[in-house]
Amino acid sequence: MPGRSSRRKGHDFEREMVHRFAEVFGKDRVHRGMQFRDGAECADVVAPALHLECKRGARTNPRAALAQATEDSLGKGLWPVAVCKDDKQQAFIAMHLEDFLDLLREWWAARSR
After folding, report:
1. Which 8-state DSSP code applies to residue 28?
2. What does pLDDT average to over the chain?
3. Exposed site from 61, 64, 75, 79, fewest CB < 10 Å?
4. 37 pLDDT exceeds 70?
5. Helix (H), strand (E) counts: the chain
6. Handedness of CA 88, 89, 93, 97 (dihedral sign)
7. What number is the average pLDDT over the span 23-51?
8. Would the pTM count as exceeding 0.85?
9. Has residue 40 got a pLDDT over 90?
């Protein structure tokens, strides 16, 4: 059953991302989003300051994932981020340039103190 296998692969990737982001923010601040119905407006992984959409498959669509994260995060004060992993490839993120520059500004200001 390809559909069931794809869903399991996606859920496994979300759980992996929970562990990876928990290494940064702590276990008590990162968890999987509420996945019910179509999952609209809820991040796949909930973490401070970020709206994370996780995609795993043969050929993910980072632009579509980022568009989904952007739409779902409107008005929430979160940076939309797509975390994508194609089969047999390293995971990567997609983020709008202006959001990335905002993130860098905050990081640089905190580091420079």
Report:
1. G
2. 92
3. 75
4. no
5. 3, 5
6. negative
7. 87
8. yes
9. no
Would the pLDDT of 35 be above 70?
A: no
Contact 10, 55 (CB under 8 A): yes
Contact 13, 85 (CB under 8 A): yes
Q: In the chain, what is the straight-line distance between the N-terminal and C-terminal CA atoms, in Å?
A: 54
Give the domain ranges of the chain.
2-112
Answer whether 40's CB lies under 8 Å from 53's CB: no
Helix (H) or strand (E) holding 39: none
2-112 folds as Trna Endonuclease; Chain: A, domain 1 (3.40.1350)
Token representation of residue 79 = 């940076």
Beta-carbon contacts of 70 under 8 Å, excluding residues fewer than 6 positions away, are 80, 96
Give the span between the Cα atoms of 20 and 27, in whole angstroms: 10
